[in-house]
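U., I forgot to send this yesterday:
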Amino acid sequence: MALTETKKKGKGTEEKDGYVHIYSGVPKEERARGGVSLAIRKKYKKFIKSWDQINLRLLQVDVDVRNHSLVVIAAYAPTDDAPAAEKDTFFFDLTTALEKIGSRKEVILIGDLNGRTGFKLNDPVVGRYGEHIVNNNGDRLIHLCEQQALRIANGWFPHKDIHKYTWTQPTRNLKSLIDYIIVRQNTQMKISDVRVMRGPECGTDHFLVVAKSYFPYKQKMQSNGLPEKNETPLSNVKYNIESLRNDSTKFLYQMRLATKLNRIGQGSPNDMYEGLKTCIHENTNKRHK
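Result:
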């Protein structure tokens, strides 16, 4: 989960309330402003490979997900009425960070981009279900996505306005879509929905944006392109089904499997089958082998 305008000074990590919090802000001797961070559930800490607190507006974390190398970038762009030079610097830094990643890794760019990107038909970047307005930051973001072959995922799923607009100012009757989840156009991640969640509150006029997604299992490969020999093909794994006769074991297995199955998004029959198969295999731990 990305958090922006945190106003937390310095750079570092901390563990709190079941999360690993990686943050980047202004030097401690400066007045608090800006700031960006990522909060990752502590149970996924082992999948974090590295992180780079680029500046007070950009933070990068590298993780492994089901043998997919994934780079998550949390971003907090200047407002649309900020000086052009400030916006130039932000988008230059963001472009530089993306270009350093290379083409083999998955990318998720999330955060408050302060850009309104409108909607387009038959466009690889902007979907048909965005809002109607485009501003300068939006044009800059669209151009960046075109250059980096990225897709703004928000606009690809139909929703009511309350589940589409990410920022509101009720007293002035204003609303806009400026917080995004952005992925590669050729991503292997299966995304079934991106929407605003109105429930969670943290003292802000922005709403939480959530994506329903998962990565299909990917077998580790050697440098010669062949599967690693220490990997046991899923089709050859044998499980101790007898252990499920124990009521406690059976109950825990059912609960864990149900949790994983709820995360499977919509997709083609083959994608959903692969997701089901992966959930069953991953949920069957060593005690059942």
